[in-house]
């Protein structure tokens, strides 16, 4: 059985552009090794947007050295990037963007959602890349809800959507650079479930809605339970209908140097990222 190491809580909220009211549940400026390979977890919303005529969001900006993974629960986001990648993600869809050697992108509410407004809720996760892959080619995986297999949990406890990695012999569609599991789990009220998480992985269970109890530790909305890397199984009890994001990953055990949207392994690599961006080497959106 895995022991609980810590419950992580949001460090207050902020807006990303004018489209994403987020709570950062963790960020690489603290405990980067403990959370490796995960760098950042932003929970956007829940928030109700009124109808508008101009899409809200965040305009063109760069990333280097990692991947951004956006999971839509409510609302729609459209994305365009300098590799020519783009698309709109809707509830149930996932955008897996590999910034790697450099990308510029923009993230806005879709035209349709802008027009209607309504409830908005998303997660954006930043996944670090191993040093050897940080300068590889940028890319984009648009994963729709239909691509994501659903596993029914034992005893009617709920269900798990397997976005990345493996669960009970079912393989998720996202391609990753290092071993990662990402499961979107819904538990029914009073359900009890035992999850088998890989020994040695960083293991995080984020509570998005509802409340769960593990042993005598509870976690509610916008809290993350971080488990020790030793051991494998975790038994959760849902105190109400609950939606969780389960993240596990093999720790990279490499230095983490970050500066805003660039995360590398040394200060020299960060300086190079700034130079490359300022000299236009990240390409441009719509080129
Ligand atoms: Mn971005």
Give structural notes.
The chain is mainly beta. The protein has helices at residues 32-35, 111-116, 267-278, and strands at 4-9, 13-16, 20-26, 38-49, 57-63, 66-74, 77-81, 86-89, 94-98, 103-109, 118-128, 139-143, 150-152, 158-164, 166-167, 170-171, 180-187, 192-196, 202-209, 211-214, 217-220, 223-227, 233-238, 242-249, 257-259, 262-264. The protein has a seven-stranded antiparallel β-sheet, with no helix packed on it. A seven-stranded antiparallel β-sheet has the order 2-3-4-11-6-9-12. The longest helix has 12 residues, at 267-278. The chain starts with a strand and ends in a 9-residue tail after the last helix. Bound molecules: manganese (II) ion. Manganese (II) ion (MN) binds next to β5 and β10.
Along the chain, the helix and strand elements come as EEEHEEEEEEEHEEEEEEEEEEEEEEEEH
Record field, number of beta strands? 26
Could you name the ranges where pLDDT drops below 50 across 5 or more consecutive residues? Answer: none
- Overall average residue pLDDT: 97
As a percent range, the share of strand residues is over 45%
Distance between the termini: 52 Å
Shape label: globular
Helical run tally? 3
Largest sheet: 7 strands, antiparallel
Structural class: mainly beta
Helix content: under 10%
Reading side by side through the largest sheet, how are the strands ordered? 1-22-19-24-17-14-13
Bound molecules: manganese (II) ion
Radius of gyration: 18 Å
